[in-house]
Amino acid sequence: MAALALAAVAASRCAPVQPSQARPVVAPAHVQGGDWFRQTGCTDCHSITAYRIFNLAAIGPDLSEAVEDVPRRFGRSLDEFLQAPTGTMSMVLSTRIPLTPEQRLLAGERLKEAYRAHQESKGVGRPVASH
Predict the structure, then answer these.
(1) Helix, strand, or coil here: 99?
(2) Which phi-psi region, left, alpha or beta, contains residue 87 (left: φ > 0; alpha: ψ -120 to 50)?
(3) What is the pTM of this model?
(4) CATH number of 29-121, picked from 1.10.760, 3.40.50, 1.10.10, 1.10.3470
(5) What is the pLDDT of residues 17-57, one digit of tens each?
């Protein structure tokens, strides 16, 4: 029953909103790491494990893997998807977190940074000792 209540809360946070309810401020470009995602509102629906942000009621995928996940699910690059999102993200980026084209480019850069941090945490790309 508690899981159902958590899911209802998460769904309500990601539900369509009126433009007057949209987040008026997107985190500025100088904000780094997980703080950018928190301030922008992405963590209302997503976890970002690369930055140790765990949303137990997450209804969206882990944004640490968006660089690989978006092309696999939508057949387009992350940058292409952010400029013309489909599905739930189309609604979110037009009403709940309205991003300008420039902010969408920044979002892509932040997602790529999270992906690199995620890969590093798994040891991908690190040299392996030969002895």
Answers:
(1) coil
(2) left
(3) 0.77
(4) 1.10.760
(5) 454 455 556 888 889 999 999 999 999 999 999 999 999 98
